[in-house]
Amino acid sequence: MLLLAGCVGGQGGTTASPTTGDAATTVGETTASSDDTASGDDAASSDGGSAVNFYVSDEKNAMSDFAHLNVTISKVGLKESGGNWTTHDVNDRTVDLTELTGANATRLGTFPVENRTYETVFVHVSEVNGTLTGGEQVRVKLPSEKLQIHQTFSVGPNQSVDYVFDISVFKAGKSGKYILKPVISESGTDKEIEDVDEKEDDEKEDNETVTDAEELNATFVGNVTRGENATVSVTRNGTAVANATVSVNGEIAGETAEDGTLTVVVPDRKELEVEIETEDESVELKRTFGEQSGQGNGN
Question: pLDDT per residue over 122-138, tens digit each?
């Protein structure tokens, strides 16, 4: 499914008059209402114009046959009702349609457009590479290197409209051949959008947070004995951490030196707890001493 999101105004693309040729075509109608207005980066530009946020998504159909279906999109075209074409380059963006099923979609760009009613949308595809679940490379037919939908939608002044252009892959009977086609029933300005780019960013931040929490490491250098000195070494990814605060059984003992170490006095008690803190991380070391032995066991 290809997803097209739209806003009108600002700087435009180049004007062109493409011919339909034998491009795969579907027909429908949709109208953007005032409820489609967005805020933030997706809203109309600061000069008072509007813009189109263009997304890609995929209807299932024969998609389950594929491990990957990479489609490279070179540009998007919009035709005004009874007017000119405007094309917008998307720099040969490659998307894997197998990752864009259902409401999942990826935004190809935000296109400034005029405050108009539009009747046709073109997606120009420069390359298609399909890999079946069994690992076999398969040719996927694309009529005339472009897909088009005849579907009316309007964009008002200072309005941002999300338009979904849905593309799916269909199996041609028992021939084993596949073809890409737009899906009119899943395209339009009223479709649900789950932006996979935003989800990936959120997951990346979550993973980085977990990684950061695990990066701080502390160890004792040598033996640890009740009533004697012990050296704590603090590192992050193998690099010494200076100025980390070290507390022994709840009392601050000092900060680590440039080499990440600090020598502390081990209290003459059965349990030893050493906490090491930086500005945003902390780690603990614990030792338990036996009644007879002065050397401790633990982390």
Answer: 999 999 999 999 999 99
Residue extents of the structural domains in the chain: 4-194, 216-290
Q: Distance (Å, rounded) from C-alpha 85 to C-alpha 69?
A: 29
Between CA 86 and CA 77 the distance in angstroms is 6
Helix (H) / strand (E) containing 196: helix 196-215
Which architecture characterizes domain 216-290 according to CATH? Sandwich (2.60)
Q: Are 157 and 3 in contact (CB under 8 A)?
A: no
Query: Distance (Å, rounded) from C-alpha 173 to C-alpha 177?
Result: 8
Mapped to the 3 state alphabet, what secondary structure does 14-63 carry? EEECCCCCCCEEEEEECCCCHHHCCCHHHCCCCCCCEEEEEEEEECCHHH
Distance of CA 179 to the CA centre of its chain: 28
Q: What is the tens place of the pLDDT at every residue in 148-162?
A: 999 898 888 888 888
Q: What is the C-alpha separation between 297 and 246, in angstroms, rounded?
A: 20
Nearest CA to 257 out of 232, 281, 292 is that of 232
Other Cβ atoms within 10 Å of 5 Cβ, number:
28
